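User: Could you write out the 3D structure of this protein bound to adenosine monophosphate? I've included everything you need below.
Assistant: Certainly. Input first, then the structure.
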Amino acid sequence: MKIVRTQAELLEQLNNVRQEKKSVGFVPTMGFLHEGHQSLLTKAKEQNDYVVLSIFVNPLQFGPNEDFDRYPRNEVKDTKIAEEANVDLLFIPSVEEIYPRPMSIKMNVVQRTNVLCGKKREGHFDGVVTILTKLFHLIQPTRAYFGLKDAQQVAIIEGLITDFSFPIHLVTVPTVREEDGLAKSSRNVYLNENERAEAPLLQKGLQKGQELALSKKYTSKEIIDQLMKEYDRLSGELDYLEIYSYPELEVIQELKGQVIIAVAYQYEKARLIDNTIFTI
Ligand code: AMP
């Protein structure tokens, strides 16, 4: 595995790969890798001749009061995991390498963003599409891999790829979970013992919501009310709990078609998100 830190080195490596007409799978991450990231890498490896992994904690997608400074980082462990996953090229740029000067053009997501995390985290998805645009241009992958744990992100990236005509195939991967159902996340390390013990109830609530929706006996509001009661017992604070069509993320009067129930929950030092997507 080759490790590069600058755009110039990255392009140099990829030059040869492009000349050999190899397919390139790209997995963008913020590091502190876990089995969720590994499943993206496994799929990328299966489907491509060459796999690029990027690790970059992107300041543009963090709000002023969010956890950019204390986002967990462990380059040594990440490098080992990347090597074990047979990554061909690992790109770990510094913030200065990616943003040597303030951006002169701002990207502004206008659809699928006024709900869920987009509503709660102002500018978050503008930062996500900005870094992905840069990385897509540099890497020019055949396929790019994203986890459905961040379902709104996937919906917005679908918009980015289509609207800006990136010749990239978007591949999604199901959420990887701990044995007790908690979605794997780099931020889980910030849960205290009590929070970690109760956090799987977030997923259990979503499953219950899915069952209620599939029974076709309840409206969205009734389902939300039921789940609120479950989440009320937890020790943190509910950030949002919402039901929409997926991937459009529009309010649906009648629960029909592909539906997402998504939750964000704020614990003392970690904000967790999870969702379930299903078809009625
Ligand atoms: P992050 O490092 O949190 O930016 O995540 C990088 C990529 O890994 C994103 O596409 C995430 O959706 C994906 N990812 C994170 N956690 C999981 C998980 N538990 N299962 C599947 N994919 C995940």
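Residues 29-30, 36-37, 39-40, 146-147, 149-150, 173, 175-176, 183-186 surround adenosine monophosphate (CB under 6 Å).
User: Perfect, thank you.
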